[in-house]
Design brief:
The chain has two domains: about 60 residues; about 120 residues, Immunoglobulin-like (Sandwich), CATH 2.60.40.640. It has two helices and eleven strands. Helices cover about 30% and strands about 40% of the residues.
């Protein structure tokens, strides 16, 4: 039974491929409509538009399949933090489960505070800045066919808590991550962690 003071967080990469697949499905709708228009109206411009949308939809689908395969190389990799949320100045215990036996490629974790703000007064673009970063060395434990990365960290009390409210001009969020290279491919996992004042 799970301790009520623990929180399990799944990585941001879990939904990355799903989002791309949804975009591919949404682009397939105009592709199909243009193809029907080209057939029934003998329209060359509709046929060209349908072909362009088909290429773009196919590329999105290929990207979603690639993203899903890349994600499946490590599996779900859940992050468990105790207590259930992080408080500035308090010691936090965490663990990451990797569904591989004797897995030793992860030597260090990164804990980063990000700030999102508008890039300019007239611009709709968003600027993302790294406010603070630290490295954490995990203790590696093995349990049957799973590798568990145990670690602990403390976010200094003078740092900013998570603030992603819609009305906030500057949004702050915290991310725990690791990355490594395997089979000429960079694998990365990121988790957004809740940090309270």
């Amino acid at each position: 039974m799970m301790d009520e003071f623990q929180t399990v967080i799944f990585s941001e990469e879990k939904n990355e491929g799903k989002g791309i697949l949804i975009a591919a499905i949404l682009f397939f709708i105009p592709t199909f409509a243009l193809a029907l228009s080209a057939i029934f109206n003998a329209s060359v411009s509709a046929a060209i538009g349908s072909f362009v949308f088909l290429i773009f939809t196919s590329l999105l689908y290929i990207c979603s399949v690639y993203s899903k395969r890349k994600y499946q190389q490590l599996g779900t990799t859940p992050l468990t933090i105790t207590p259930g949320y992080c408080t500035l100045g308090d010691n936090i215990n965490g663990s990451i489960s990797v569904e591989r036996a004797q897995f030793t490629k992860i030597k260090v974790l990164s804990l980063i505070c990000w700030k999102k703000s508008k890039a300019g007064t007239d611009s709709g673009s968003v600027r993302q800045d790294k406010v603070w970063e630290t490295s954490i060395t995990p203790k590696i434990n093995y349990l049957e066919s799973t590798t568990i990365l145990d670690f602990e960290f403390t976010i200094p009390a003078d740092k900013k808590p998570t603030d992603e409210r819609f009305t906030s001009a500057k949004k702050y969020y915290w991310e725990l991550s690791f990355e490594f290279v395997e089979s000429l491919s960079k694998l990365k996992r990121c988790w957004k962690i809740p940090v309270k004042p």
